[in-house]
Each structure stands twice: as C-alpha cells, then as structure tokens.
Amino acid sequence: MEPDAIYLLQRLRLSAELNAVEVGKLIPRYFGDHRDFFTLARLLEGGYVARSATPEKVPHPFRGVDVRAILLYMDAHELTEYRGVTANRHSGKDDNPLFLTAAGMLALEQFETKRADRLWSTGIAVAAAILSAVATAFAVNVLFR
Questions:
Q1: Could you read off the pLDDT of 36-55 as tens digits, one per residue?
Q2: Can you give the pLDDT at residue 60?
Q3: Percent helix / strand / coil, the chain, rounded to 5
Q4: Which H or E run contains 50?
Q5: Cβ contact 49:43 at 8 Å
Q6: Residues with Cβ < 8 Å from 86, sequence gap 6 or more?
Q7: Which residue positions in the chain have pLDDT lower than 50?
Q8: CA angle, 106 as apex, 41 and 9 as ends, to 5°?
Q9: Which of 71, 104, 72 is nearest to 85 (CA)?
Q10: Cα–Cα distances in Å, from 37 out to 53, 94, 118, 141?
Q11: CA 110, CA 33: separation in Å to the nearest integer?
C-alpha cells in the first residue's frame, strides 16, 4: 500500500471520522485537480474507507475510481459541477463523513506489524553483526596469539 494511503488510514483512525473538506486538506497535492483524490477513491472502492451514506448514485457508464475521485474532489472543494459531472449539494455541514472500516483497520494493523517486524529484524541483524565482529576480534587477538 502506498504511503499516502497509509497516512490517510492513520488519520482516519485517529479522528474516527472526517468530512470531505478535512480529508481534502490531508491529501498531498501532486496535480492540483481530481487526480490527487485517486488514492482516497481507491481506498473507498477497496472497502478500506466508507461513508455513512452514499449519495453519489451515478449512472452505470460513470462508475469507477475516476468518477469517485471527481466526486470526492467536488466534495472537498464544495463544487456543484466539475468536468461534466453535476452533484446535488445540501447547504450546511457535511452529513456524509468518511470513516475507517474493519478492512481498513486490519490493513493498517498489518502494515504496522510488518514495520515493527522489519525494525526488530534489522536490530537483531545489527546486534549479531557487532557481536560477531567483537568475538572475531577477541579470538584473533587473544586466542590465536
């Protein structure tokens, strides 16, 4: 999983839920348009993140990650039309926040466990190398003189 996706999952775990505007502020800007929201759209499509309701009922030809990214971009920037896609907006606060699902929590915990395992493995390897070097130096200087 890419670092941006891990960061979003971690922020959602800390906050419990975030509205689209708040998530839009967390997403790193590479392109400055809807393409920045592909990571979040893939997390939604993969079932790692969900919304409390799904108002974006789109016709069959427009389903998919690209339209979901456009709709998320529109939500984050509070737009009603963007690139030929029109969305109905309710005035007031966002009543459709994003939250972490069980699959997202599991993926995040697996990532963190693997990272801890890698750190422990690296630490043990460095300690073994240092111990081996010290033992070799001791054996060469003391035992074989």
A1: 999 999 999 899 999 876 55
A2: 45
A3: 65, 10, 30
A4: strand 49-51
A5: yes
A6: 80
A7: 58-60
A8: 40
A9: 71
A10: 19, 18, 30, 62
A11: 31
The DSSP element (H or E) to which 16 belongs, if any, is none
pTM listed for this prediction: 0.76
- For 2-26, b/e burial (b = at least 16 CB within 10 A) is eebbbebbeebeeeeebbbeebbeb
For CA atoms 104, 110, 113, 114, give the dihedral sign.
negative
Cα angle for residues 116, 109, 103 (degrees, 5° grid): 155
What is the identity of the amino acid at 134?
V
Mean pLDDT of the chain: 85
DSSP-assigned letters across all residues of 51-108: ESS------GGG-SHHHHHHHHHHHHHT-SEETTEE----SSS-S--EEE-HHHHHHH
Q: What angle do CA 117, 120, 123 make, to 5 degrees?
A: 150
Check residue 141 and report its DSSP letter.
I
Phi, psi at 114, each rounded to 5°: -65, -40
Specify whether the CB–CB gap between 23 and 98 falls below 8 A.
yes
